[in-house]
Automatic annotation (TrEMBL):
One Gene Ontology term from the biological process aspect of the record: heparan sulfate proteoglycan biosynthetic process
Limits of the Exostosin GT47 domain: 104-380
Protein name: Exostosin-2
Family listed: Belongs to the glycosyltransferase 47 family.
Organism: Drosophila rubida
Main location per the UniProt record: endoplasmic reticulum
Length: 719
C-alpha cells in the first residue's frame, strides 16, 4: 500500500468531504477540481515512474533537500519466507539481455521511497550519505535513464550497503514491492558490509533472488563469476586531504606497517612474534588502538605514548598489512592504497575489487594466512625497482578506480557494460596500463605487430623411440605450406636414432639431435639450428592435426607473437576444500594454459625457459619428468600478463595407434603431480600469473555455408 500526498498535503480520500450541490455548475466545478488534484498527485508522486528526476536535481543542494522531503511512503508486511539469493545465477540465465537494446548500458533509478512496517511503522532502512553519493554518481553519468522502458539495469533507492543498519525482514518485501522487480532480474544491489554478528558471513542476508550483487565481502565460495561484481569497502576516513600526490617523495622508513585494528587474534599473535624477532625496528611497525579509541589515530604496541595520525602513518611504510577479520572485506585496503603503500593481503579466498578487469598482481602482494610468519622474508626479497613499479601501479589504480564512491560506482557499471557489450569493452591492457603516453610495452619481445611470413616456422619434435608415429608426423608436417624445417630431438640415450636415410623423404630440411640426458626441458632448448622466430613444439604422437589447422595456427601466431598459440588447452582452478590450486583437464569453455605438446611460441621464450626460469622450476621439471608445459605457460603469463590462445575447436589429441601404457598421461599420478606443479609454481612466483579466458580462434567462414573454394582453410577438425 502506497501513501501519497498531494500539493497542499490533502490526501485523495479527503476529496469526498466536499459538499456537492445538485445544480450542474457545482458538479462541473467539483469534476474540474478532482482532475486538477489527481494531476498534481501524479506529477509529484511519480506513480508511473516515467517522469523526470524529481528526487535528484543537478541544480543545487536546496533542490536535493526539497526532493528528499517528497519521499514516498510504502507500507510493508514483515517477510515470513526467506529465500536469500540464487547461488546458481550466471550471466546467461539470470540476466535478461534483451532489455539491453542500446549500444550503451542504461540504468534506471527508482524514486526515493520510505519503506515502513505496516504494524510498527518501523523503517526498513535509512538513506546513508554513502548510498546517496552512489545514486548521485549514477544519476549524473552517461548510464542514467529516466525511462524504465529503455533501461537495461535497475537500481533501487533502498540502501543495503551495511547489513548492520537495515532490517533484513523488511528489506526483502521492500525489494519485492518495486514495480519492475520480477524476482530481481536485471537489478543491482550495492552491499559493502554483509552478514550480522556473530557469524558475519560473506553473503547478503536478504531476499535478493536473481539480482546482481555489487559486494565488498566476496570470497571464492560466494562470488558468482561473470555475474556479481566485487567492489571495495569504502572508508569514511578517505578525504581528499589524505590522498598523496603521484610525485610524493615521502621517506618510507618501515618495510611493513601493521595498523589494522580488527585482525583475528591468531594472526595478531603471529605478527607480534614476528615483531619481537625482527632484526631491526625498521622492518615492522606494529600499531594498535590508542586509549581514546579514535579511528584517526594509532599507537605503538610497544610504546603507547607514541601516537600516529591515521591513515597518514601508512605513508611511512613500503608495505601495509591487510589481514582477515570477522568480515572478509575491510576498508584497510583502500586506506593503504590512499597513502601509496603496497598492500600485503593475507586473506585466503578473498575476491579483490574489480578482479575481473584489474590485474592486482601488479599492485598487491598476496600471501596465504598460514605463511604470515614468513612475510618479512618474502618482502625483503623484492627488489627496490619492483617496489617502485608497484607503488606507481597502486597510485594509478587508486586514483582511477577507487579514490571516491563516484569512481567506484562508475567503474562497477563499466565492468557490467563490458560483460553485456563485450565488443565495446576495453582490453586488459587498457584497464591496467598506467597511462596512454607510457613508453613501457607489454610485448617483451619488442617485435613488430606482425611477424614476417616469409620465415615460416621450425617444428621441434620431442621423441623417445616411437619411430612409426614419428615418421607419420613428419610426413604430415612436410605438407604444411608455412613449415620451414623440422628438428627431431631424440631424447633416448640408450638407443641411437634411426639413420637419416630411413626417414621419410620430404622437401623440407630435417635434422636429428640426440640429447645427452632424458629431460623434458630439452624441447625448449634454444638450438642454433632453429633459424626462424616461430617454433612449433609438438609431441611425436600428435598426428591428428591437419595441414590447414597447423597453417592457420601459424598465421594466428604471427598476429600474437608474444603469446603461446596452440591446440590442446587446460585450466587451473582453486580448490576451496584443500586450499590449493588444481589442474583440470575437463573440456570447458575456459582456458588458462595451452599445452606445448602442440603449440607455437617465439624462440625468445626458449631462451628464457633455459636461462631465466625463476627458482628451481626447471630442475624440478627435469627431475619429475612432468609439467614442462605448465612451467612455460607460467613463464610467458608472468612476463606478458597475457593468456594463451587456443586454436580451432579440436579437443581430442590422443594418438589412435599408441597404447596407453606408453603415454605419460595414462599414469594416475601424472594428474596429481600436475596439480602439485601449479601450486608449487605459484608459490615460487609469489602470485598466480595464469589468466583465465573464454576465447578460441577459428578461421573466417568456419562452419559457414559457403563453397569450399571460397574458404582458405577447409580441413579444420570439429572435435
Amino acid at each position: 500500500m502506497t501513501k501519497c500526498k498531494g500539493l497542499l498535503g490533502i490526501e485523495p480520500r479527503n476529496i469526498n468531504t466536499f459538499h456537492l450541490k445538485e445544480n450542474i455548475l457545482n458538479i462541473l466545478t467539483y469534476t474540474l477540481l478532482t482532475i486538477v488534484v489527481i494531476c498534481a498527485i501524479w506529477l509529484f508522486c511519480d506513480i508511473s515512474g516515467h517522469r523526470d528526476r524529481f528526487f535528484y536535481s543537478k541544480r543545487d543542494s536546496v533542490a536535493l533537500d526539497l526532493s528528499l522531503s517528497h519521499t514516498q511512503e510504502v507500507l510493508l508486511r514483515s517477510d515470513s519466507e526467506y529465500r536469500g539469493r540464487n547461488v546458481n545465477c550466471t550471466f546467461w540465465d539470470c540476466l535478461n539481455i534483451y532489455k539491453c537494446e542500446h549500444d550503451t548500458l542504461k540504468v534506471y533509478i527508482y524514486p526515493l521511497q520510505e519503506f515502513l512496517d505496516e504494524q510498527s511503522d518501523k523503517v526498513a532502512t535509512t538513506l546513508s550519505s554513502e548510498y546517496f553519493q552512489i545514486l548521485e554518481a549514477v544519476l549524473n553519468s552517461r548510464y542514467y535513464t529516466s525511462n524504465p522502458n529503455e533501461a537495461c539495469l535497475f537500481l533501487p533507492s533502498l540502501d543495503l550497503l551495511n547489513q548492520d543498519v537495515f532490517d533484513k525482514h523488511l528489506a526483502g518485501p521492500a525489494l519485492a514491492s518495486l514495480n519492475f522487480w520480477d524476482r530481481g532480474e536485471n537489478h543491482l544491489i550495492f552491499n559493502m558490509l554483509p552478514g550480522n554478528a556473530p557469524t558475519y558471513n560473506t553473503i547478503l542476508d536478504v531476499n535478493v533472488d536473481n539480482a546482481i550483487v555489487l559486494g565488498g565481502g566476496f570470497d571464492s565460495w560466494t562470488y558468482r563469476p561473470g555475474f556479481d561484481v566485487s567492489i571495495p569497502v569504502w572508508s569514511p576516513l578517505l578525504q581528499q586531504s589524505s590522498i598523496l600526490p603521484a610525485h610524493t617523495t615521502t621517506h618510507r622508513k618501515y618495510l611493513l606497517i601493521v595498523a589494522q585494528l580488527n585482525l583475528l587474534p591468531q594472526h595478531l599473535r603471529s605478527l607480534r612474534e614476528l615483531s619481537r624477532s625482527a632484526s631491526s625496528a625498521e622492518q615492522l611497525l606494529l600499531l594498535g588502538a590508542c586509549e581514546n579509541r579514535e579511528l584517526t589515530s594509532r599507537c605503538s604496541t610497544m610504546h603507547h605514548a607514541k601516537r600516529w595520525d591515521y591513515p597518514r602513518v601508512l605513508a611511512r611504510g613500503k608495505f601495509c598489512f591487510v589481514g582477515r577479520s570477522l568480515r572478509i572485506g575491510q576498508p584497510d585496503l583502500l586506506e593503504a592504497m590512499s597513502q601509496n603503500c603496497i598492500p600485503v593481503l593475507a586473506i585466503d579466498n578473498f575476491v579483490l575489487p574489480f578482479e575481473d578487469v584489474i590485474d592486482w598482481s601488479l599492485a598487491v602482494i598476496r600471501i596465504r594466512e598460514s605463511e604470515i610468519h614468513s612475510v618479512l622474508r618474502k618482502l625483503q626479497s623484492i627488489s627496490n625497482v619492483k617496489v617502485v613499479e608497484m607503488q606507481k601501479q597502486v597510485q594509478w589504480l587508486y586514483s582511477n578506480y577507487l579514490k571516491d564512491l563516484k569512481s567506484i560506482t562508475i567503474t562497477a557499471l563499466e565492468v557490467l557494460e563490458s560483460r553485456i557489450f563485450p565488443l565495446q569493452a576495453r582490453s586488459s591492457r587498457k584497464w591496467n596500463a598506467i597511462s596512454k603516453n607510457s613508453h613501457s610495452t607489454f610485448n617483451p619481445l619488442f617485435l613488430t605487430s606482425l611477424a614476417p611470413k616469409s620465415q615460416g616456422f621450425t617444428a621441434v619434435i620431442l621423441t623417445y623411440d616411437r619411430v612409426e608415429s614419428l615418421f607419420l608426423l613428419i610426413q604430415k608436417l612436410a605438407v604444411v605450406p608455412s613449415l620451414q624445417s623440422i628438428l627431431v630431438i631424440w631424447n633416448n640415450q640408450r638407443k641411437a636414432p634411426p639413420h637419416l636415410s630411413t626417414f621419410p623423404t620430404i622437401a623440407k630440411p630435417l635434422k636429428i639431435i640426440q640429447t645427452r640426458e632424458n629431460k623434458l626441458s630439452n624441447r625448449f632448448y634454444p638450438y642454433p639450428e632453429i633459424e626462424t622466430e616461430a617454433i612449433l613444439t609438438i609431441d611425436d604422437d600428435i598426428i591428428m592435426l591437419t595441414s590447414d589447422e597447423l597453417d592457420f595456427g601459424y598465421e594466428l601466431w604471427r598476429e600474437f607473437p608474444d603469446h603461446i598459440v596452440g591446440f590442446p588447452s587446460r585450466i587451473h582452478v582453486w580448490d576451496n576444500a584443500t586450499m590449493r590450486w588444481h589442474y583440470e583437464s575437463e573440456w570447458t569453455n575456459q582456458i588458462s594454459m595451452v599445452l606445448t605438446g602442440a603449440a607455437f611460441h617465439h624462440k625468445y621464450w626458449s631462451h628464457m625457459y633455459t636461462y631465466a626460469m625463476p627458482g628451481d622450476i626447471k630442475h624440478w621439471v627435469d627431475d619429475h619428468m612432468n609439467c614442462e608445459d605448465i612451467a612455460m605457460n607460467f613463464l610467458v603469463a608472468n612476463i606478458t600478463n597475457n593468456p594463451p590462445i587456443k586454436v580451432t575447436p579440436r579437443k581430442k589429441f590422443k594418438c589412435p595407434e599408441c597404447t596407453n601404457t606408453e603415454m605419460l598421461s595414462a599414469d594416475l599420478n601424472h594428474m596429481r603431480e600436475r596439480s602439485a606443479c601449479i601450486d608449487r609454481f605459484s608459490k615460487i612466483y609469489g602470485r598466480m600469473p595464469l589468466r583465465t579466458v573464454e576465447f578460441r580462434a577459428d578461421p573466417v567462414l568456419f562452419r559457414d555455408n559457403f563453397p569450399d573454394k571460397l574458404k582458405r582453410y577447409n580441413d579444420i577438425g570439429s572435435l
